Amino acid sequence: MAEETVPDKIKRISGNIYDEIIKEEKPEVSMPLRSLSNVTYDDKIGYFELDNKFKSRTLTASTVKTFAQTLKMMALSKVLVETDDIATKRETYYVSKNWGEARFHEQVESDTVMDDVEAMFMVNREQLGFIPEEKGGDIAGKLVVIDIDSETGKELRIDCTKFGSGAYSIPITVEHLKFETNAKFILAIETAGMFQRLVKHTYWKQANCILISMGGVPTRACRRFIRRLADDKKLPVYVFTDGDPYGFLNIYRTLKVGSGNAAHINKYFCVPQATFFGITPQDIIDYKLPTHPLKEIDIKRIKDGIKNDPFVKHYKLWEKALIEMTKMKKRAEQQALAQHGLNFVMSNYLPDKLKNNKTWLP
Amino acid sequence: MQQKLTPDSNDDKKPIALELAKKQREISIAEFFEKNRHLLGFDNKKKALLTTVKEAVDNSLDACEEASMLPEIIVEIIDMGNERFRIVIEDNGPGIVKQQIPKIFAKLLYGSKFHRLKQSRGQQGIGISASVMYGQLTTGRPAKITSRIGPSYPAYEIDLKLDTTTNQPLVISEKEIDWHKEHGTRVEIDLEGQYLKGSQSVDEYLKQTAIINPHVTLIYQPPQGSQIMFVRATEEMPKQPKEIMPHPYGVELGRLMKMLEHTEYRTLQSFLTNEFSRVGAGTAKEICENSAVLPSTPPDKISREMAEKIMEGIKKTKIMNPPTDCISPIGKDLIEKGLKKEINAEFYASCTRPPVVYSGNPFIIEAAIAYGGNLPEDKPIEILRFANRVPLLYQQGACAVTKSIATTNWRSYGLKQSQGSVPIGGCVLQIHMASVWVPFTSEAKEAIAHYPEIIKEIKLALQEVGRELGKYLNKKKRLSHELNKVDYISKYLTHVSDALQEILKLDPAEKTRLEEHLRVVLEKTRSVKKEDLEDLKRDYGPKLKREDSDVDDYDFDEEKKGSEDDEESSEEEL
Q1: In 10 A of CB B196, how many CB atoms?
Q2: Which of A107, A131, A155 is the last residue of a domain?
Q3: Are the Cβ atoms of A301 and B517 closer than 8 angstroms?
Q4: Considering Cα of B52, then B57, then B58, then B62, what sign does the dihedral take?
Q5: Closest residue on chain B to A38 (Cα)
Q6: Does A101 contact B at CB distance below 8 Å?
Q7: Cα–Cα distance, A124 to A114 (Å, whole number)
Q8: Is there a catalytic annotation at residue A94?
Q9: Taking the CB of residue A289, how many other CB atoms lie within 10 A of it?
Q10: Which of the listed CATH numbers 3.30.565.10, 3.30.40.10, 3.30.420.40, 3.40.50.10280 matches domain B29-230?
């Protein structure tokens, strides 16, 4: 049986709402609860899997605005899909300016409604015709990406060793890409600064690897790219972030197992083969790294993680590391390695790490 | 260094007291007045003007009421230049018999009110004659009194002065005249004064008098500008208060001694039973026992020491509270009517407390409140204080009323208030104390003394009207919330139908039908029923300020709950 298309789904749900209103009953839409409390983690599956907690939005005097906005968003999506068009999140926010009183005042509001609709239909927002603004991330190293020339329709071979001091940008959609590589591993890096250093000194050549700059929390495109590449070429993924709760829980955990916020798509956007390279709390001690005190928000994030994050609960090593960090009350940035010389990271840190998997975190 | 105290060298001189005796003489009443004018309300020219109007109007009102005549009083202030004013007060009261006129208007401490215990405006009978004397001292001119006691009697016009050494009236001239009034009294006094507007002015006094005496019509011609009419709001006369005997608990030593001196009863026992309220034979005997004074002692044989013992004895004896039916309150409805008449607001409440007793004197507290409308919202509330239907314009800070207001928690009734001060908000608060004897902090009768019983009663009255105000404000708040919600629904309803039309390709008829049903669905979810809302709208609608009709994100509880689940501090998803 053919799967129901997005426009059909939109029509079906709207039709139900219409019928209920005509019967003078309160219409209701429901969507999975988008929260860490509604996911479970099993390392055999490898990602945060959605539980079956739902939240419903009933049409009442107080929810009428959000309800109207949700329906408007659905109508917009239907048009986009039917006309094979796309709208960025920012564009969508501007489209809403035509909605009179129901318009959004800030993009966060429209993003939240978009996320709601996405979850309601259990699809990826690209399937609704909505795309993000941000580009996916930067690549340098031993990789040839095979794309399609949008003018000629012919294959386009992009050699990621040929960008000099620059880099290849991951496109917003990555499903059609193919890969060729003989690299040994993928190194995913939090900061553009560290990525620049490694590119400048062609670390990818020295270590025979692919370097990816995530620039903070990786975008969905970046996560999907890494996932497809790693699956396709059976490559291990090493993640190199700052030694702080943001690096551990927001960047690494989201990359590896997904998030609670968009759990219905984690299946496609997780990278279960990722391993945490550093900076670990133990590294801070071992390498005598210069540190900063933990901020209140960091401590809150750690406590929150230990208490609520199914990923942390699953891995005792992570729990231990987080507790250790709370005791130290300190965090360290990737660039802190420069304390021992600008190229210490390439000459010592990364080679040490590669040699000794005991210093990694799952 | 110490200085030795040496005996006076002139011991052979006459005692100094003999020297001093030469200077000692009877001081004239005028001299006394000159030195103590502040006690009687003539501190300055502005206040002198007010006091004179006040004394004359108070007398007129008392006279009309005693004669059960609806008062209609004309007040006229004529600016004669050079800080001189002529004050004219004319009433439609019972009039005064000719022989009494000189004593009433030109002899200090003469009157019917000083010797009795009865709720009335004046208490000492000092007022109007003091005004006559003040006028005489400042302008040299006599007061002119016109009075007629009935249609078949002539009207007399008498010019009066007061002999300031003997405190005796001097009739300057006296004649029969034609007068348009069938009965009534007209007083004309020339005096030095100052006419100003504001919170302690004649204008304010008359306005407040009109508020607290809803049965009175006042016609006022100020020195400048046009005539002001305060028209009565009711034809109902206040109930005449009864005269009562003093209660033993309220009597002070001096008064007791004076009563003993003047009594016609021959034994202490009969003196006590006949000249006091709530003292029967048994109680009188008990007082005598507790005082260790024989009941058969003749009152004129009782010394100061014995009187003091009797005071002690009274304290030790348990005596029933005085009767309270001697008090005539204005009444819950009329006090509110009076306030409504002169203060334009959106909400009024009032209460009359049951009678209670302080120091043997029965009293009743009444309160009324006006809120909103055009009253200034950011200023301390306006306090109107009254004692026996007389406005108190001075010494607000020293008054028991002000203290009671400041120590009541108005925040729970919806007004702003900082700890221990008068609340802020568009409010007029009116407090009336009716009693056979209102205790003032001074002779000028401007602030009620701080008796705990009185403060307690005032606070109870304030709480009563405060609760009504709180209820009103709550209801108003809820209504404006509901109205906003209706706005909110209407605002977004069409967007729901628009979106459904777009998705489902509805035709215009289908869309209209959808909107009708949708409105029904949404109105069902409101907390207030539609009919109730209509009622509320009718009662409060015009009073609501719909400033915040541009609601975008109305603070609805349900919505809040719903969005909590979405929030996750540590989550970020791009």
Answers
A1: 13
A2: A131
A3: no
A4: positive
A5: B565
A6: yes
A7: 11
A8: yes
A9: 21
A10: 3.30.565.10
* Complete DSSP assignment for B225-247: S--EEE--S--PPPPPPPPBPPP
Q: What are phi and psi of A37, to 5 degrees?
A: -75, -5
What residues in B contact A245, CB-CB < 8 Å? 570
Indicate the helix (H) or strand (E) that contains B357. Answer: strand B356-358
The string of pLDDT tens digits covering residues B136-181 is 989 999 999 999 999 999 999 999 998 888 888 899 999 999 999 9
The residues, any chain, with a CB within 8 Å of residue B70's CB and separated by 6 or more, are B64, B215, B216, B217, B232, B235, B237
Partners of B492 on chain A (C-beta within 8 Å) are 64-65, 67-68, 101-102
Chain A partners of B493 at a C-beta cutoff of 8 Å? 64, 68
Q: Could you tell me if A102 lies within 8 Å of chain B, comparing CB atoms?
A: yes
Predicted confidence (pLDDT) at residue A97 exceeds the cutoff of 60: yes
Residues 553..572 of B with a Cβ closer than 8 Å to A: which? 553-554, 556-559, 562, 565-566, 568-572
Locus of tokens 């003078």 = A24
What is the C-alpha end-to-end distance of chain A, expressed in Å?
A: 41
> Closest to A61 (Cβ–Cβ): which among B514, B525, B568?
B525
A218 contacts in chain B (CB < 8 Å)? 574
pLDDT, position B542: 53
CA dihedral (B389, B394, B398, B404) positive or negative = positive
Nearest by CB to B520, which of A24, A219, A261?
A: A24
DSSP assignments along B276-306, one per residue: STT--HHHHHHHHHHHT--TT--GGG--HHH
| Three-point CA angle B158, B45, B219, nearest 5° | 60
Nearest CA distance, B543 vs chain A (angstrom):
24
One domain for residues A44 and A26: yes
End-to-end CA distance of chain B: 94
- Are A102 and A215 in the same domain? no
- Choosing from A94, A246, A268, A315, which is the catalytic residue? A94
What is the distance between the alpha carbons of residues A135 and A172, in angstroms, rounded to a whole number? Answer: 6
- Name the CA dihedral angle for B277, B281, B283, B284, rounded to a multiple of 10 degrees: 80
For residue A207, the Cα-to-chain-centroid distance in whole angstroms is: 26
Helix (H, G, I), strand (E, B) or coil at A342: coil
Q: Which residues contact A179 (CB under 8 A, 6 or more apart)?
A: A143, A144, A145, A146, A228, A229, A232, A233
Q: Are residues A59 and A173 in the same domain?
A: no
Interface contact flag, B496 A26, Cβ < 8 Å: no
Structural domain range at position A336: 138-359
Q: To the nearest whole angstrom, how far is the Cα of A95 from the nearest Cα of chain B?
A: 14
Strands (E), B372-418: 382-387, 390-392
pLDDT-based confidence at residue B564 (cuts at 50, 70, 90): very low
- Between A128-137, A228-237, B410-419, B428-437, the lowest mean confidence (pLDDT) is in A128-137
Nearest by CB to residue A67, choosing from B496, B517, B526, is B496
The CATH number of B248-316 is 1.10.8.50
Q: What integer is the mean pLDDT of A97-117?
A: 90
Question: Residue B92: CB partners within 8 Å, gap ≥ 6?
Answer: B64, B69, B71, B72, B73, B181, B183, B184
Q: How far is CA B397 from CA B50, B196, B203, in A?
A: 20, 21, 21
What tokens appear for B528 in the block?
Answer: 């207030």
CA distance A223 to A233: 15
Domains held by chain A: number: 2
pLDDT band for position A46 (cuts 50, 70, 90): confident
